[in-house]
Amino acid sequence: MASSVNPTVRRRRLGQELRKLRELKGMTAEEVAERLLVSQSKISRLENGRRSISQRDVRDLCGVYGVEDHRIVDSLMQMAKESRQQGWWHAFGDIPYSVYIGLETDAASLRVYEASLVPGLLQTPNYANAVTEGSWPEATAADVERRVQVRMRRQERITDPENPLRLWAVIDESALRRIVGNSAIMREQMEHLVEFSLQPHITVQVLPYAVGAHPGMYGKFSILEFHDPQDASTVYLEGITSDLYLEKPNDVQAYSVMYEHLRMQALNAEDSRRFILQVAEDWAEDGRKEGPNQQP
């Protein structure tokens, strides 16, 4: 059964504490790896929270760092135990971006720029299904259904009445114009976007073609920020076979500045709604030309 404890966040925080202990000891990751007869990459993955941490790992590292306070060791051991529990997403099997889901689940705010697609948190089930089928041609029907279910489950973060995720989305016009599925699905998706953009914690801005060249032309990215000041803001870059997480302050600052430029160049929220409604009408007109039997 999935636990309410977020294992991704536990691993991240535990890794931060272990890094602090290593630095207080004045040791490099290479020196620690040599003492424990493991690879340096393992120590790095433990510290950045990308690898599961066992209680034995914690015990061995505390031994190397000379931690004598049993309360500290016990606390770290408990964090290691919790980090190995399962989040809700594990019930759906092997999800390649599970680390990101864990971070998104615990985030306070999310800034996302999308160049080709409507952001996952704002997709309708029909659009999500068509996107998954188109971007993953070898997937079975069961694979597609599972991915769509995960995407819909993720959306509970922005509909949570007590602690909704603060979402700011800048979407390139290409994402609104590229047909995914059919015209009816696109019209439904545009109307869905407008509906969500009216929520006080959600801002949607459109970056129209007329802007020309802009900083987001290098590709999509997301910036996650957290309630706990100990959790560093993170830039997420999605890849085909692997993802990249940037946490260094200089990297986060560079992407934050880029995002501010994108927000400045995009239409404001009200003009964006009008723009999306016009695109919805364009898709409706296309649907009327294609015939009355088209369904989302």
TrEMBL record:
Domain HTH cro/C1-type: 18-73
PROSITE patterns membership: HTH_CROC1
One Pfam family of this chain: DUF5753
Signal peptide: none
UniProt xrefs under InterPro entries: Cro/C1-type_HTH, DUF5753, Lambda_DNA-bd_dom_sf
Protein name, UniProt field: Helix-turn-helix transcriptional regulator
Organism of provenance: Streptomyces hesseae
